[in-house]
Amino acid sequence: MRRLTLSLGAHSYPILIGGGLLTAVDQIQPFLRSPRIALVSNTTVAPLYLERLVGAMEKAGIGVTPIILPDGEAYKNWESLNLIHDALLAARCDRSTTIVALGGGVIGDLAGFAAATYQRGVPFIQIPTTLLSQVDSSVGGKTGINHPRGKNMIGAFWQPKLVLADTDALQSLPARELSSGMAEVIKYGLIRDLPFLEWLEANMEGLMACDGQLLAQAIERSCANKAEVVAADEFETAKEGGRALLNLGHTFGHAIETGMGYGEWLHGEAVAAGTMMAAELSRRLGWLSAADVERVRALMLRAGLPVSGPDLGVSRYLELMSHDKKVIAGSLRLILLKGLGQAVIHADAPSADIAAAIEACSRA
Ligand code: NAD
Ligand code: GLY
């Protein structure tokens, strides 16, 4: 088992990565305020893993209230949040009940937001089961839901007490979902870890073949990067650098997800196409060479990811991007690359270059 810590003073917590962790109740028990959990999952993950987890919990004397939601990004909304709150109230869960998220980023974000808001906040544990959620969404405490006008527009920062990433769960993940998660893995290399980017270039085929050892290494390195960034800027308030850099490709990507309708493009797919737009814009600003952009493109393709977005039209992209959470006083701040492994936040990209980068990386 690999063990990392996200250092946030009194709110620090462990991130455990390895095979067989799903039923490691001994790791969970010390974090429970009472022997009572509400387990939030969905109709795809529950049939695969719920029984095993509930069995292990009950054997240890922990009462479980399962809450099973419909599956999909389209359900990351108020209705699902309300279903969780209803179930918690119906089961008379109190402030000592721990909410446990068992699933991908959609379940983690929803269950985390429910934990942040139920009775003004109850403890929360993440058991992420997709690559994307193991390398990104389960770590760092961003929780929330989508709004028809924009991705992740409603939410709260609410840190988990523990993240348990069972790498065995990835064996049942569809290939398209593995690719989606790989977009966030590649992101860490691009924004701040060139040696990791080179390691990914050397190992992408093994990773995509679901080699457990390689995946565990990639998850650990990704989480270590994320933990360092979040520890330094938990609430994304740093003006330069900081947590916002984790959003490489996301302003363009969120426009794709919202513009296409939630669930049409997977989050990582949209991030991959958005990253190509950010790379192309960085090239236009003279920061990346054409060879750098080609290197990013080649890696995305080897990870089974799209390298161009849908043709929403430049003006629709710009309209959707104007809702981004990084917009301050009407100014669009984008995460761009000064070089591979070196991201910056930039507010002054000329609109003509932004438009040209979108145009160059969207399918006609
Ligand atoms: P997801 O939660 O929709 O999961 C993808 C699919 O895989 C779903 O159908 C799910 O049911 C299924 N699944 C999950 N685990 C499985 C398993 N082990 N075997 C088989 N199928 C499995 O998507 P995701 O990619 O995990 O997460 C995307 C979400 O995460 C987006 O909503 C995104 O906005 C959010 N996100 C949040 C953060 C954050 O910091 N909070 C960061 C990145 C992304
Ligand atoms: N996924 C971006 C962040 O956690 O800040």
List the SSEs and their pairings.
Layout: E1 2-6, E2 13-18, H1 25-28, E3 36-42, H2 45-59, E4 63-69, H3 78-90, E5 98-103, H4 105-117, E6 124-128, H5 131-137, E7 142-147, E8 150-157, E9 162-166, H6 175-192, H7 194-208, H8 212-232, H9 250-260, H10 267-284, H11 290-302, H12 314-321, E10 334-339, E11 342-346, H13 351-360
Parallel strand pairs: 2-9, 3-4, 3-5, 5-6, 6-9
Antiparallel strand pairs: 1-2, 7-8, 10-11
Helix pairs in contact: 3-4, 5-6, 5-8, 6-7, 6-8, 6-10, 7-8, 9-10, 9-12, 10-11, 10-13
Bound molecules: nicotinamide-adenine-dinucleotide and glycine (GLY).
List the keywords.
Dehydroquinate synthase-like, alpha domain, alpha/beta, single chain, 2 domains, 364 residues, binds glycine, seven-stranded mixed sheet, binds nicotinamide-adenine-dinucleotide, two-stranded antiparallel ribbon, 46% helix, Rossmann fold
